[in-house]
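Dock zinc ion; give full complex structure.
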Amino acid sequence: MPGEKIEAHLTAMEVAAYVDNGLEAAARARVRSHVAECDECRGEVIAVARLARTGRRRWMALVPLAAAAALVLYIAPWQGPSDSTAPVLREPGVTTIVAPTPIAPHGAVTALPSLTWSRVPLADRYKVTLFDADGSVLWETQTADTTAVVPPSLRIVVGVPHYWKVAARTEPGRWVASDLTSFTLSRAPPQR
Ligand SMILES: [Zn+2]
């Protein structure tokens, strides 16, 4: 693993190993120095550490870094502050129900009027959850529609990635969740 490049972001393996105290001294030093410089990776380490405390770090090595962050956010808010070590993810592939797909916002956006996602056949209800950069739930709502208007009072920090996902209810008590998608609100255009 290249040791001298500060510019290279940490891999999911590095982050997981670091949190798990599984790195040799040189590798730890690289992680430390990188994290000191890189907000993005520092966020990953914090998020993974939080995940590790709940006993779920084994998932981290299986997914790419960006997805790893998403996974942290995916699990944490839905499980609440429980310290349970029970497995929380369903077996992949047990369902043929298609999850909804977040459509907008995604990536850099200049406004956040609403959230839009794809329709899921048979779904009678959608639950949308918006998270801040730390994975805390900022806002959650349910609707039968495939779009949800964001309340103007919602505080979205400019320039900081936020995350959202949507779950579709396909039968009573059964929700199929999308992956997390991220967006960053850029500086708002000047008002007329
Ligand atoms: Zn980085």
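Observed: The chain has two domains: 12-79, 102-185.
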